[in-house]
């Protein structure tokens, strides 16, 4: 299968429209072609983003009661008004009732009961950066599977040295890296692959932060694992299964600990 043939089939594959034989052939090509694999990830990310609802927060019980009360009052008032007028078959002659019902529907979804926590807001920003890297076709600034090529690339671009590991033997080959910005400061984004999936590992200094254990969360259809270790913040983000991303995070932690021990020795 050529790249042109593969790219013409990616949308159908993402939508589940291909037959089994074609799907297998395409999967084999995507596993061998990094360029087409990135195209596949971008299409999948776009599809996921378009299907996601806007961020909303559950309305408080008091707001729900107020909306229900207003809705019932509006319906009763409109019913009394209709009884004094000629009956008409047109549903849109009940503007107040319809408006109240719409208010209830949108109010319960969109009324904000409180702001998101700082951790949750940062998690959403990291996920957004992951999706943006797939959709903008800007996954890497330095494209290399060699950790000794990727790590030096960051020299002079950021004021810290990210831990760059070779995890190909464990099933997570390095693709490259890029410079990103998270929470208003530079971050190193290390890009790995697991089968057909892309994993972004974001890292930056965490000043005076205590070490924390990995914490798994799901946002906008993407899994993320966050932890702090040795004065650095780490966020691993991908659409891989949660246990696979946790395995990746554990490998990064173990690899980073091994490097630290070797440097001290």
Brief description of this entry?
Helix content is 49%, strand content 20%. The chain has helices at residues 3-14, 20-32, 34-51, 61-83, 95-110, 118-135, 147-153, 242-264; strands spanning 142-143, 174-182, 185-194, 197-205, 212-219, 222-229, 232-238. Helix 3 (34-51) crosses helix 6.
Q: What is the level 1 CATH name of the largest domain?
A: Alpha Beta
Helix content: 40-55%
Q: Could you state the oligomeric state of the chains shown? A: single chain
**Major sheet: order of its strands?**
1-2-3-4-7-6-5
CATH architecture label name of the largest domain? 2-Layer Sandwich
Number of helical stretches of at least 4 residues: 8
Number of strand elements: 7
The overall number of domains is 3
Major pleated sheet: 7 strands, antiparallel
Uncertain segments? 86-96, 106-114
Radius of gyration: 25 Å
What overall form do the CA principal axes indicate? flat
Integer average pLDDT: 80
Beta fraction: 15-25%
CATH topology of the largest domain: Phosphorylase Kinase, domain 1
Compute the separation of the termini in Å.
50 Å
Order of helices and strands: HHHHHHEHEEEEEEH
